C-alpha cells in the first residue's frame, strides 16, 4: 500500500536518454489517417514503408518446413551458420565483397543492426554524420546510444546526395561514423560509383571515421542504375565499413524481422554483445525463411521492380504537372520526395495559411484524404514523401485529389 502511494506520488519519468525522442511524425500521421478511415472517410494512405507484394511462396514454405522439422529453438547468437553462409554468398555474388562467416551478423531487422552498431561503438557525445533527408530512425538510434547526430542538409539540386566538401567540413576529432543510405528512404536518391568516389577519398584521409552504409533498397533501382556498395569500391575502407542490408524490402518480408550486415570481425563481435542481452538471437523460423529468400530464385525481383518503376513514373509526372510542386525523379526505393515550396504562403479554402510542409500535408489529409509525410519528419523542408507501394488505381485517385486540392489553394 505504502509502496503504491509512493509510486503514484513520484509519477513516471522516462530516462534522459529517450527524452529527446518523440513518437515519429510518420506514426502520428498514420494513426490520424487510420482514425479518419474508421470514421468512414475515404483516406488513401501513401505512407507505407513496405512493398505491397506478398512474401514469395517458396519463402513461406521454408518457414513452414522449419516449424515442422523442429527449428523452433534458440539459434546461434547472431545468426545460424546456414543463414550466414547464404549472406556470405549473397555479398560475393551480388556485391563482389567477400566476408568470412565471423564478419557477418544477423539481427531482428536492419533496424536492430543499426541499434547494435551504435550501442556497441558510441560513447557519450560521439558524433555521427547523417545527410538529410534521412530515415528518421538514424538520428533517434544515435541519440538513444547517447551519440550526437550531425545532420547535413543535401537538397534537391545536389540530388539529395552528400558532397565531398560537406563531408570534409563536418568531420571533427569526435566523428565516429558517417551513415549513408542508397537508394534512400525518403528521397529515392542513390549513389553511383562516381558519386561515392569523392566521399570515399575524404574518408581515406580520416582513419578514425567509420562508414555505415544502408543498402536496404539495393534491389529496387530503375533505368539501368548500377547499384554499388562502398566496401566493393574501396577495399582499404572495408576494414572500417559496416555494410547493412536485409530481406524486408527486396523480398517483401517486413514482418519476418531479419536484417544483416558484413563488417570487421571486432565490430561484429561487439555488436553480438549488445544483441546477446537484448534478444538472444533472431527468430529461428524467420532465419530459415531468409535462407530460402537469399538462396532461392531471384527473377521475380526484376518483375517487381518494373512494377515499382511504372508507379514511380506515374507519380513523378503527376506531381510535376501540379503548379507549385517540384519532384526529382528518384533512382530507386519506392518513394518520391517532392518539393512544395510553391505552396507555402497560400490560403486553404477553409481560410488557413500554409506555412510549412507539415501544414501542407495536414491540408492534403483533411481535404484530399491523402496521407503523405512532411519533409520535416526526415530533416529537410519544405518537401513531402509519397510511398508508391500501393496499387496504380489508388495512386491515380490520390494524385487526382492532390491536384484538385492544390488547385483550390489561393
Ligand atoms: C533505409 C532503411 N533502412 C533500414 C530499414 C529497416 O528495415 P528492417 O528493420 O525492416 O530490416 C528501413 C525500414 O523502413 C529503411 O527504410
Automatic annotation (TrEMBL):
It catalyses: L-aspartate + 2-oxoglutarate = oxaloacetate + L-glutamate. Keywords: Aminotransferase, Pyridoxal phosphate, Transferase. The keyword Ligase does not apply. The keyword Cell membrane does not apply. GO terms for molecular function: L-aspartate:2-oxoglutarate aminotransferase activity; pyridoxal phosphate binding. Residues 42-402 form the Aminotransferase class I/classII large domain. Its cofactor is pyridoxal 5'-phosphate. InterPro entries: Aminotransferase_I/II_large, AspAT/PAT-like, NHTrfase_class1_PyrdxlP-BS, PyrdxlP-dep_Trfase, PyrdxlP-dep_Trfase_major, PyrdxlP-dep_Trfase_small. Its EC number is 2.6.1.-. GO terms for biological process: amino acid metabolic process. It holds the Pfam family Aminotran_1_2. Belongs to the class-I pyridoxal-phosphate-dependent aminotransferase family. Homodimer. This is Aminotransferase. It comes from Pararhizobium polonicum.
Amino acid at each position: 500500500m505504502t509502496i503504491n502511494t509512493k509510486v503514484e506520488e513520484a509519477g513516471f519519468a522516462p530516462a534522459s536518454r529517450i527524452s529527446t525522442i518523440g513518437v515519429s511524425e510518420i506514426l502520428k500521421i498514420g494513426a490520424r489517417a487510420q482514425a479518419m478511415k474508421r470514421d468512414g472517410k475515404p483516406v488513401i494512405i501513401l505512407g507505407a514503408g513496405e512493398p505491397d507484394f506478398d512474401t514469395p511462396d517458396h519463402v513461406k514454405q521454408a518457414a513452414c518446413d522449419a516449424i515442422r522439422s523442429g527449428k523452433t529453438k534458440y539459434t546461434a547468437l547472431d545468426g545460424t551458420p546456414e543463414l550466414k553462409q547464404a549472406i556470405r554468398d549473397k555479398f560475393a555474388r551480388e556485391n563482389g565483397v567477400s566476408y568470412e562467416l565471423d564478419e557477418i551478423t544477423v539481427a531482428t531487422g536492419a533496424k536492430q543492426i543499426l541499434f547494435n552498431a551504435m550501442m556497441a561503438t558510441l560513447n557519450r557525445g560521439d558524433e555521427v554524420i547523417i545527410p538529410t533527408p534521412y530515415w528518421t530512425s538514424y538520428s533517434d538510434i544515435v541519440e538513444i546510444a547517447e551519440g550526437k547526430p550531425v545532420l547535413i542538409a543535401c537538397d534537391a539540386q545536389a540530388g539529395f546526395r552528400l558532397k565531398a566538401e560537406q563531408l570534409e567540413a563536418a568531420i571533427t576529432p569526435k566523428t565516429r561514423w558517417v551513415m549513408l543510405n542508397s537508394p534512400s528512404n525518403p528521397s529515392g536518391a542513390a549513389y553511383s560509383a562516381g558519386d561515392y568516389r569523392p566521399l570515399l577519398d575524404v574518408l581515406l584521409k580520416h582513419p578514425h571515421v567509420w562508414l555505415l552504409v544502408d543498402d536496404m533498397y539495393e534491389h529496387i533501382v530503375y533505368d539501368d542504375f548500377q547499384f554499388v556498395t562502398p566496401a566493393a569500391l574501396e577495399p582499404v575502407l572495408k576494414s572500417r565499413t559496416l555494410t547493412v542490408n536485409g530481406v524486408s524490402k527486396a523480398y517483401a518480408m517486413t514482418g519476418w524481422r531479419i536484417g544483416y550486415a558484413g563488417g570487421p570481425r571486432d565490430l561484429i563481435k561487439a555488436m553480438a554483445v549488445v544483441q546477446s542481452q537484448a534478444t538472444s538471437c533472431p527468430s529461428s523460423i524467420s532465419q530459415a525463411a531468409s535462407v530460402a529468400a537469399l538462396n532461392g530464385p531471384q527473377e521475380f525481383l526484376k518483375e517487381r521492380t518494373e512494377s515499382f518503376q511504372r508507379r514511380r513514373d506515374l507519380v513523378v509526372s503527376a506531381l510535376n504537372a501540379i503548379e507549385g510542386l517540384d519532384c526529382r525523379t528518384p533512382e530507386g526505393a519506392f518513394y518520391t520526395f517532392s518539393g512544395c515550396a510553391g505552396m507555402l504562403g497560400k490560403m486553404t479554402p477553409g481560410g488557413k495559411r500554409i506555412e510549412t510542409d507539415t501544414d501542407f500535408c495536414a491540408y492534403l489529409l483533411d481535404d484530399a484524404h491523402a496521407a503523405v509525410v512532411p519533409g520535416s519528419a526526415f530533416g529537410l523542408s519544405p518537401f513531402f514523401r509519397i510511398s508508391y507501394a500501393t496499387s496504380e488505381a489508388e495512386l491515380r485517385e490520390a494524385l487526382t485529389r492532390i491536384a484538385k486540392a492544390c488547385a483550390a489553394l489561393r
